[in-house]
Amino acid sequence: MRPNRHVFILTGAQGEGKTTRLKELIGKLRSSGLSLYGFYAKGYWENGQRSRFDLVDVQTGKQKLLCTNQRASGFWRQGRFYFDPETIRWGTMLLDGDKEGLAIMDEVGRFELEGKVWASPLMKLVQNDKPVLMVVRQVFVQEVIDKFGIVNPQIISPDDDLQEVAQGMLHYLKGLNRKNSVGD
């Protein structure tokens, strides 16, 4: 298997601030002019626990309700949350692998490991050697690497210096683009 070092995994424990760090990293990458697409999940708290998540388009900032802890018509239940199938379809569209740039996925986990939700677009991105930055809970990292055939990904910790991480990612991705354009 050839290495796909264009896969970046931001990882940490649940509640460690992975999405907050992802948004900071998105800002640094965007300010450098890198084209980004995909989504992150914006969580809301109520009575000391997560009450809902919105899916946020990294290109436009548009957001839609992904899931809520309140029963909702047409939503399907998983654990304590009810998921909107329309938002899941929208998220799939945001991951369209024909786009140029870096795909952003927050958060890859149990659903994708079971072949659900965004497993198919993630597999397509990895198999087509598209650059991907994904958030994965530490407990799932090795399973995600194995399931999607990721070889030698670049692992990012929430404690890493994000300026250095962004510079390293940009350097690597610019080198990747030069290699791809030389072969064209």
Note down, in words, how this protein is organized.
With 184 residues, this protein is an alpha/beta fold. The chain has a single domain (7-183), classed as Rossmann fold. It has six helices and nine strands, in the order βαβββββαβααβαβα. Strands 5-6-4-3-2-7-8-1-9 form a nine-stranded mixed β-sheet, sandwiched between helices. The longest helix is centred in the C-terminal third of the chain and has 22 residues, at 162-183. The protein is globular, with a radius of gyration of 16 Å.
- Neighbour order of strands in the largest sheet: 5-6-4-3-2-7-8-1-9
Instruction: Just name the CATH architecture.
Output: 3-Layer(aba) Sandwich
Q: Which strand-content bin applies to the residues? A: 25-35%
- Average of per-residue pLDDT values: 90
What is the number of helical segments per DSSP (H or I, 4+ residues)?
A: 6
- Counted beta strands: 9
